[in-house]
Every structure is written in C-alpha cells, then in structure tokens.
Fold each of these.
Amino acid sequence: MDIYWLNKKADLHLQRGSGIRRKINAMLTGMAHRLRTAWVPGFPRHLILDVFSSCGLHCPICPQGRREIPRKPSVLDPDLFRTILDSFGPYLYTLTLTNWGEPLRYPHLVELVEYARKWSVYIGFSTNLQTFPREKIDRLLETDIDEIGCSIDGATEQTYSKYRVGGSFSDAIDRMTYLVHKRNELGKRTPRIRWQVLLNRYTEKEIELIIDTGRSIGVDSIVFVPIYVDIAGLFMRTPRERFDRDRDWLPLDSGMSWYDYETGLLKQIPVICDKLWDTMVIHPDGAVSPCCGVIDPAHDFGRITPGRLNGLRLFNNASYRTARRMIRLRRSINPELVCSHCVTHGILIY
Ligand code: SF4
C-alpha cells in the first residue's frame, strides 16, 4: 500500500499513456508555461470535469457543505461531455470527474467513463460513498477507470462525524471495502482504490489507525491531504481573514498544514500559477473556470454548449490571455478577472 502526504508535495503518478499527439501538445504547453506566453499553442493537459454539482453532506469548511457556492446546481448533459472530450480527449493526461459535487449521483457516469476510454487518459474521481447504487458501481468496476478516491476523514465514527456532517462512517468504510473486494473478485488491478483523508484537527490524531485500517481493508493507497481554509472566501476576503475564519480546523501540528500559523499565508506561495497553462475546469452546465477554487459564475472564463468546440480557441480566449499576462507581469491589469486577486495576494492554491 502506498502512502502519500500532499503536504510534502508527493507525486501521485497520475499518468496512463503518452502517444505522439499528447507528447507534442505537452511539449508546446510546457514551453509556453516556461516562457509565460499569453497565447498557448496547445490544449490543457488536465481537465477537471464536474459531472454533478451537488452533494448531500454538510462538511463545515467545504463551500459545497456550507452551501456557499453561488452557482445553480446542474447535471452534465451527455451530449456536452461528448463535445468536450472529442476536443480535449486526445491531449489529456488526466480527467478528474469531481470538483465540488458527488459523481456517484451522476446518472451517466458509466457511459461517460466508457466514452472517455477512447483515449489513453488517466480517469478518476473522488466520492464520499454516501450514495452507492450497487448496479452502477458493479458496471463501473468493469470499465477501465483508473482510480476511485474514497473521502473518509478518520478511522473512527467519532472523528469522521466531526467533519463529514450528515455522513455515515460505517457505510463509507463498508463501501470502500466492497470496492476493493469486488475489484479483486473480478481479477482486475484497476480501478486503484485510494483512501483520501483530509488532515484536520481531529484526523491528525488517527494517522496510525488510518494506516492500519487501510492495510487491513487492502486499499491501494492512502493520501493525506492538508485542508484549505475558507474556499468560498478565496477571492472575497484577504488570506488572513480566511485563515482566521477556519483556523480551528487546522491540525495542531503545523507540519500537516499548507499554512504558516504566524502569518496565515501559504508556506510557499507559488510564483506562477501553473493552472493557467495546463488545466481547465468545466462545470456541469458547461461553464469554464481557470481553477477549482473559482466557485462564483461571475468569475467564469467561458461556457461550452453541445456541438462543435474549438478547444484551442477557448483555452486562448481574452480572459485566459489577460490572466496569463497579469501573472507574468505580476500586476493586475483587469481587476474584474479573478486571477487579479492572486496577483494582489499571491497565488492562493497549489
Ligand atoms: S485564480 Fe489564482 S489559482 Fe486560480 S487560475 Fe487564477 S491565478 Fe491561478
């Protein structure tokens, strides 16, 4: 079993294949990133495609759990995912089917995974396992999906229920166990079952128990993920205000956190935002955002509708080009653009 600590910048090895088109694209976008060009001669390498935007839990510092996402709930239209994948699929290294929603609630999940498998892209998603339609799960396990991340914060009911408000710990553990056993029964190595644990004030006390439990269940990996504070306030409040809003959730051991507890800032503020050159986030209604932290539709960079899509043009529209220019100059030239906040306060997420 692999154990990853994202606070130590672990490499999760999320890669499936290469292929000449994908390689050339990565070379071109990588070069644009190094030169900080406003125009990128290629497609994003990573796509976060949110398929179903709501989730039943009330996790206390998640913008979804707090019901602070101003976007209307929506469900991805199958014609829309075909449009998106036809354009981006040949160039993608990773396709993540979760942003702030719960993918197991999405009625066309199996169909989407089977469609995306036309391309050699690493496909995965995270789930809270509170919705678990058996028939859909069994079909999903027979697809060629690469990974399922199970979000279970804690190794005991007491710890789990502090953060996953409204969720059942025993259901989550039983269902993660089912995924491992059923996959093994099918004689398959994928999907890899990853246990994802947010590092918070409560889970930090159960690290060893989590590792022991993960081993006994037989998960392929455990990934410990430091929490971000006040995502909903990312572009509305100062970093200090956000830190103060949620500081009681942070682990007492600051080594398990992204934040410097004196300043309230990220310990290492990135100089450049990589996402603008290699990632795209698409919401179920087709809205496009430059990164996963953008929850307000007023900050979107575009919208995709079913039909023909020129992905290259979209990835180089006026919003993308201006945002890249601002990051390169480290100066806000359009305060209306969400990235202006990162230029002023430093990049806010890794
Ligand atoms: S808002 Fe910040 S983190 Fe998001 S894409 Fe823009 S610069 Fe990057």
Amino acid sequence: MRWMPTRSLRAYFDHNAGPLMHKWLHYFPIYQQHLRPFRGRRSTVLEIGVSHGGSLKMWRYWLGRRAHVVGIDIEPRVAGLAEPGIDIMVGDQSDPAFLAELARRHGPFDVVIDDGGHIPAHQIASIEALWPHVRPGGIYLVEDLHSNYWPEMGGRRGAPDTFIAWLGARLDDLHAFHSREDDFQPNDWTSTIAGIHLYDSVAVLDKCAPRPRPEHRKTGFPVFDDVYGRSHDEMLDEHHRRQIAAVGRPLRRLGRLVRHPVVTTRRVLARRR
Ligand SMILES: C[S@@+](CC[C@H](N)C(=O)[O-])C[C@H]1O[C@@H](n2cnc3c(N)ncnc32)[C@H](O)[C@@H]1O
C-alpha cells in the first residue's frame, strides 16, 4: 500500500506555504468528494488556469505520486513552473487547435478542472473540445460558474449563450433516451454523460463508456386485482411473468410439502435417483 497524505485538501490549502492559490472555500468538500476515487491511482489530471501554480502542486500532493498533473494557461510565464509530475502548456482554452494538441500530447484525461478565464464562451469551447478526451470513469469539473451571471464576463441570468444555458441543454440530452419528440433524440452527450452534479458555482460531469438505452423492469407479485382498471394479464410483460414463475417455484414446492409431506418427499427422492 502506497503512502497517501491524511491531510484534507482544505488543511493543505490552509497551511499552504508554497505558491499562491486562490479558491472559494465551499469548493473543498466538492473537490474532496469527486476527486477521492482518483487518489493513489495512475491518473492524468488537467487544470485549466495555472496562475502561480499553487493548485497544481496541491492536486499532485493529495492525489499521490502516480498522478500526472497538467496545467494550461494563456500567460507564458507559467511555463517555468513545470516540475517532475507536473507538465505545463501555454495556450488559450478557447482555441480548439491548441486543445487538440494538448490532448494529443497529454490525453486522455481522468480529471479536468476548468479554473481558467471563467468566460462562459470559453468554458463551453473547452468542454466541447476536451470531453471526447476524458476517459470513461473520469470527471469534468467547471468552477466559478457565478461568472455566468456577471455582465463584465458576458453573463446574465437567462442568457442563452452562457455555460449555465449550455448545461441546461446537457440536462435535456441526459434524458433524450426517453424522448417522445422527433427532433429530440439521443446524441453523444446522452450516451457518455453518466451524471451531472451542480453546486453553487461548480458543475461536475461524470463521463461513462457509451451507455445503451436504459431498461426498466417489474418484479414480484401483484397485491391488487387490477390497477387503474387494467388486469394483471394486460400489465405483466414476458420478463415479469418468467420472474414470478421462477421465484414462485420454491414457494409452491414448500406448499406441497406442507400439504402432502410423504408424497412430496417420495417424489423428490425419486427425481434424485
Ligand atoms: C483563477 S486563475 C487560476 C487559479 C489557480 N487554478 C489556483 O487555484 O490558484 C485563472 C488563470 O486562468 C488564466 N487564463 C485566463 N484566460 C485564459 C484562457 N483563455 N486560456 C487559458 N488560461 C487562461 C489566467 O492567466 C489565470 O492564470
């Protein structure tokens, strides 16, 4: 078992004696919950927005030495902050060509944390370019979504071109397997988003391997003779009938044994011979 730090991310932040870091305090439990599965594992973690490099060091410390941390930033000076286990590329998070080169060099990613410029259009450009390069089982976390409500960042409540509005469309996509509308059908987002978690200013999208159309089933015995005027015969599908028959068999045997113990025991013994 490899040694893993027992300190929480928040404790690391509070006692940070290294390069500057800037985080909203209510993000720490969110990080802790969604990053925990990657601790001690071989993983590639991308952070958009390096600033002084403090958070890159925090991820590497807390996730462990098997984590490969990659930071990107538009500010050229950050290139000098690379160190063993931490790679840095200089470029614009809204530039698809740069992001394609980033993914070619360092992808696929297990974790992406977007703490870059916080401009809604850039948040959208980044996730659209990088989502195909997130591994199934990985997560994509976008923070400081309050920028989507700030006019100076191009945000406004209800505006159609913010990341919040984009996320609303993904909530629809997540449910597209259940659509009854011709122009609302499953797409790549439908099949590769496993879940969406939304907090104050933070969204976390879970990625899965392409998932099939969900199935639903009924099991067990009806309690009422009919439901909403429909009889069991109308309601039970083939799978449910087989399930009831399968679980009912031992019960019927038990009933026979209680009613006719000698005959049933003889029959069972005869079958065994
Ligand atoms: C909030 S700071 C990052 C803070 C850092 N992650 C931390 O926790 O301390 C945002 C960074 O994003 C960078 N940035 C701004 N616009 C960008 C863009 N279009 N592409 C890449 N990085 C950008 C800025 O240069 C800045 O260093």
Amino acid sequence: MSDATELPKKEEKLEVTPEPEEQSDESSEDEAVGETEMDFLRNLFSSTLGLGSTEKVLDELTLEGVARYIKSGKCKNILCLVGAGISTSAGIPDFRSPGTGLYANLQKYDLPYPEAIFQIDYFKKHPEPFFALAKELYPGQFKPTICHYFIKMLKDKGILRRCYTQNIDTLERVAGLEGDDLIEAHGTFYTSHCVSFCCRKEYNLDWMKEKIFSDAIPKCDKCSSLVKPDIVFFGENLPVRFFTSMKMDFPRCDLLIVMGTSLQVQPFASLVGRVSKSCPRVLINMEKAGQADPVLGLLGFGGGMDFDSDKAYRDVAHISTCDDGCLAFAELLGWKEELQELVKQEHARIDSQDEREKESKESAAMASSASVEPQPKAEE
Ligand SMILES: [Zn+2]
C-alpha cells in the first residue's frame, strides 16, 4: 500500500515494531537504508561500466531451460517476487486496478477520494470504512492458489530462500510459508498493533477477526487507541525487514521467479535489478513486465528485464495465469502430480477446518440460547 513517493528516507523514523530475534546481527535502520543507496550506486556503476559477469546460466531462454537449471541442482537460493496476480484465482480482487478492482466498490463508504480508505491520517479519524471493507475482504475467506502451493513446494524442496510478496491476504502463510520464509512488503493482516506510539500493543489475527466480524471498531484494551492490522497504509513506511533482508538475499539469489505482478510499484519493482548479472529471472504473468526503459537503458540505468533483444541472455517470460504457469513449470520439473495432490489435500483440510469452526460456533450459539431459555429435559 505504498508507492514510489514513500520510500523511507534516512531522516524518517520507520514505524514498525522491531523483530529483535531477526535483527540481532543486522545494522541499524539508518544503516540499512544507507546500504540500499550504496547498493544502488554499486549497481549503477557496474551496469554503466559493464562490470559484473553476464555469464549465461540457462541453456535456453524458456521455462524448459529454467526447469533444467533447477534440476541440475545448481540452484539453491530461489527468490520469489509475487503480487496480486497470484491471488486473483482465489477470488481476491486486485487492489490496484482502477475501475475493475476494489476502488470501484468504494462509493458506498462516502470517502473524499477512494485512496483515503488506505491513508493513515484519514484512517485515524474515520476508521469505519476501512473495517467495513476489511470484513468484506477478510483473509481466511479464501483458499491459497496452485501458485501459492508451488512456492510452498520450493520451500519443501529446500531451494526457496525467500518469498517477497506485495499481497496482504496472508495466503502465503495459509499455504504453509512461515515468517522467516516471507517478506510481506506491504504488511499483513496476520498481526495488528495499537496505533498509539507509546503503547503499540500487539494483537493477533483471531482477536482482530472477532472485532471485524462483530462490526466493532477495534480499540486497544490497554489504552483505548485504535488498533490497526499491520498492513502498510499510504503515508507509512515499508517494514524494516524488507530492507534488511533485501540486502542479504538478492546478492545470493541464483534464480528469481516473478509472478503475478506488473512490477509498477516501487520499491518492489526495482528488486529485479538487485540480483547478480548472471542470475536468471523468470516472469510468469499475464503480460510482460519489468522491461528496462530503452532511453534509461542507453544511459546505463540497466537492471530491467530483457526477454527479446539480441542481447537477452537470462530473462524468460511465460505469459499465462500464475496457476497455469506454475502447473506447466511443475510438470517440467516432474512435480506436477505432487503439486496437484498438495493442493487437493490442503484445500480439503481448510474446508473441513471451516466446517468445524462453523459447527462449534453453531453449538456455542445453541448453548447460549439454551442457557437463556432452558429446554425441558426429557423424562428418563
Ligand atoms: Zn494501546
């Protein structure tokens, strides 16, 4: 929920809860952002001066070529960059498509302008529209897609370094990725925090769910301030972990898989340029994306995808839905049946869990109505 204008600047205090266990060996926030700038300069110089190896790793610029590379066993640090396109088949509307997506359905909330619903200052004064929308879009009403389970398989095979997602639907977690496997660049519904700087008490998903579904505006039980899911609103910074992990992950990446994103939102979009020059990059999307602007390319601002030029040597575009692309990929890897079985099992598990929750709610409701109006017991 952040755009190009909201890249954290050195002067700004990053509004996030530190995660000490993950950052004990990391530098400070300021240094992390400073490093980002250094990386940028390093990349700029290396592309301008033609430094860095452009070794051809793939034998063919196709999904087959990428599958052969994975099967060769040389690929152990895969990064996935994913966006809204991986969740559309789960039924989640795309937040960023004007007209077709979410913004079109916001009229009923009487907002001054649609984006206000995700603007932190507006939210602090008028939280109602956001929570009404959150109820409609509540994570957990949806099941992860084939694509989500494909990423889970990469983890299970021990070759996923991390998945960077722009989505806030938590479907990566539902599919079995854990905190350390994930960078939720635009935050998550999974945890929530009190908005008061002095308090910042954390709340879990169940707590927030209860509030959202009882149409109550979530208030902190310690200080009565608003409680907000940890999704990144306009006017807020990206999580610190995004910057610290990026610095560690991208230089080590040996295959970048980009799925379901048109790579138009910064700083997420610039991540494709952060892998080494020999690192193959595959895009599975409904359209080509991330290509370098030809003029900027001439000026030496490289890093964009190059699928088609004479110089193309590492970028592969597979134009399809993310689910179809992942099935095709899995087939080439010899994992197709395993993937389909995983999806079947997990969806059945989620369905039966939903069924059990429904039943326990119904019986709780019956029990409470029974206590109000005791039913006469049958004589024995
Ligand atoms: Zn509080």
